[in-house]
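[INFO] parsing input record for Thioredoxin
[DEBUG] input buffer:
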Amino acid sequence: MAKKSFQELINSPGMPVLVDFYADWCGPCKAMSPVVQQVAGQFNGKLKVIKVNIDSNQAAAAQFRVQGVPTFILFHKGQQVWRQSGAMPAQQLTQAIQQYV
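[DEBUG] output buffer:
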């Protein structure tokens, strides 16, 4: 299977896509990992989650002007509809996604 481009991944029809920009050296990113998994589980089958390591995917990080990690960007029908940087409670992440599923 060919590797999909970032653009193809975020243009997922009918399903919002949450992109988690992170780095291995980032403490808050590690803290958010179980939160992201929990939220993804809540929206199982209704949300696609993509984790993007900014160190190995600098082009994607630059394209979306990611300056701090973690940065979460929610795409719906290929459009950026929500964005937040930094750690946050699961409830805040859930509320942001809820209106698009």
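[INFO] The mean pLDDT is 92.
[INFO] shutting down worker
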